[in-house]
Amino acid sequence: MMTMPEIERCLRQLRLSGVRDTLQTRVLQAQGTNQPFLETFSLILQDEMDRRQSRLIERRYQHSGLDEKLTLAEFDWSFNPKLPRQTCFQLHTLAFIAAGENALLVGKPGTGKSYVAKAIAYQAILQSHKVQYLETDDFFHRHALSPIAQRETRLRTIIDCDLLVLDDLFLARAIPDDGGALLQTMIHQRYKLRRSIIVASNRVVQDWGTYLGDNTMSTTILDRLMHHCHLLEFDGRSYRLKEAAETLARETKAN
């Protein structure tokens, strides 16, 4: 029979880190309660499964491009009570991903579009979906400067993921010369594959042709994006201005 150090060394070689990390606890638990072997063994296996799932979720988060782990439960819905709260929570169920549907979040700056998009994206990661989050204008510029082989690999990842989030689309109004064609390719390819997209933008769709410099391209993009799409309008006061005012008030009071 192996000693505990020998068992731990064996688990390390087998890359069973979840079992290794909890084995001592499970052994003491079984000894203290006269737990049947199969029950103890099933708990040990569950520890390994949980560890692997946790590591998979963390890897998918790291690869997604998200920089925050946000939830809708922590969002201040009372500040702008007219926001489409019910529809946001419906999207949070992720049924739209299974159905291959899209979501377009349009409205004033600072009203929570990016927050909601990120929260839904993070929920998708927790449910084992592959997600790509792009700050769109920054992505267009970086893509234009990348080597061709790197562009192709990056584009394939974007097209193949379960959920693509295009945040702050047309934030800078003008996009690089090939940005429109790239946007059209991403949306067209994902439309053919019935893979979901969330777009968040301060710009009304009627002006997209102006920002793209091509009304025909705009029509083509919107035709595919808006087919099977949830349209959410965000109106109200800016959360960022609210937070800035609160910070200023605290600093003034402290001084």
UniProtKB/TrEMBL annotation:
Gene3D superfamilies: P-loop containing nucleotide triphosphate hydrolases. This is ATP-binding protein. GO terms for molecular function: ATP binding. SMART domains: AAA (SM00382). It comes from Bradyrhizobium macuxiense. InterPro entries: AAA+_ATPase, DNAC/IstB-like, IstB, IstB_ATP-bd, P-loop_NTPase. The keyword Membrane does not apply. Belongs to the IS21/IS1162 putative ATP-binding protein family. It holds the Pfam family IstB_IS21. Residues 99-232 form the AAA+ ATPase domain. It comes from the Bacteria. Keywords: ATP-binding, Nucleotide-binding. GO terms for biological process: DNA replication.
